[in-house]
Amino acid sequence: MIKILLENPLMLLLMVAALGYPLGKIKVYGITLGVGAVLFVGLAFGMLHPDMKAPAIVYIMGQALFVYTVGLSAGPSFISTFRRNGVMNNVLAGVVLCASAALCVAMQRYFAIQPGIAAGIFCGSMTASPALGGALESIRQTAPPDMLEALLAEPVVGFSVAYPIGVIGLMLTINVCQKIWKVDYQAEFKVLRKPEDRNSLVHCTIKVQHVEPPDTTVQRLNESNNCDIIFSRIKRGEEFFYARPETVLQPGDLAMVAGAPHEIEKIATVLGERRSKERLGLDRTEYEYRRIFVSSPQAIGRTIGELHQDQRFGEVITLVRRGDNEFLPEAKMVLELGDVVRVLAHKTCMDEVTAFFGNSYRRVSEVDVMTFSLGLVIGLILGLIPFPFPGGGSMQLGFAGGPLIVGILLGTFGRTGKMVWSLPYSASMVLKQVGLVLFLAGIGTRSGYSLLTTLSHGGGGSIFITGVLVTCVTAFLGLFIAHKIMKLPMTLAVGIVAGMHTSTPGLGYIKEQTGNDLSDQGYACVFPFATIGKIILVHIILVATGQL
User: Fold this and answer.
1) Assuming Cys at both sites, which of 77, 160, 185, 492 could form a disulfide with 522, CB separation 3.0 to 4.6 Å?
2) What is the pLDDT of residues 187-223, one digit of tens each?
3) What DSSP string describes 54-103?
């Protein structure tokens, strides 16, 4: 069997993926390794023979696909989070990450660990696969040809030992801190549940009994009550018509509305009676609701306000579904390829409205190969440009940093002219998954024998201790500063710390602990910055330890 795998690297790659992926779903005390299990299966196969390894192009291609796709999906959230408390949260992340890198360098000198292994420990302790790619890229660019294979294996050895520590250590630190500090997540949730929370939406009919003052428009009603309710259509007597921002409500009107439950209650109290027995949503005599896939270039990458619905067919978007989440539409909200919009329109116009948005399931399942490849090429070119360090030396972003930064920029823009850079949600998930599996399987098989050699010579103890310290100190420091010094609710603090660690398993564990999704806000806020920051910091670690 070993001979067959040595002669067929493609079979080796597929076997590693096929065994590793399901193993990552197995829970042990509520903890799973996720797709990271592919790395360990790859290491196990690599230990069988010195030549049991996938071609280098496999992990390089997987790495580029993964980080570029991550950048495209994270771009919009990376920019938008700075509009709130994003600056302070990312400053916190930067300070803690720098402290963790300094600790890693100190432990490397204390234990006399190989520089490449120390860089891998940092990446594994922080569960940072893109940073590991950055470390490998930096070594690949500077290592002598005769030592390249050995030096490339060092970061993977450190990563493979420290990665499970990074997953488990984060969860244990959070668990200990929440018990010591006696955190009540349910009480925090009641305070944090604000108007901008769009995860729970209600559609109902309100019977208007009084309007004060009489000339109050729908827009002014929302503004004066600090709400963002969508008024879709109005029934006045026997007449149906669309609700516009300038529409003035009158006593006796029946208004179909959508919004967060607490905002619905507030508006219903102001206007009259909630949930009248007459359900306008079921009346399809003149107007019709339809859920439509956004697949047309005319709509993709444009804000809802830029669509000028009132000047076209008069349709009203009442709901936007993206992945598993539903959002109330806002004028500044950018529609993405693969979104599902719930549209209200007159029956005579519904076909034209559907054609405008596209409604092609096939289109939202495809990737525009031209724009995707072009964006990736731009990222690879950026990764080859040397950036000088003060005092001498230079750094290249490589095949990890370049595509990530370009992905974030293009994901933020969404489109330039007729070129749409964003990916359908389903395609984005698949590409991230495939890219990460290729990356982990590739570096795992190429480093398994080196890991076996290191452990057989007794070098695993110092790696393990360093990984534990870097993981737990980083997690505790982040939680302490965020919760005790900055006075952030623990629900948000744990999300920020999970974002610092870029730990998807950690975020899943946090959701189980808190019982809500509010930690996603903290996670999304710092995730892109932390991803880029760790790619830069791992290069600095290699310089500080004498590898570069």
Assistant:
1) 492
2) 877 666 544 444 455 667 888 888 888 888 888 888 8
3) --HHHHHHHHHHHHHHHHHHHHHHHHHGGGTTHHHHHHHHHHHHHHHHHH
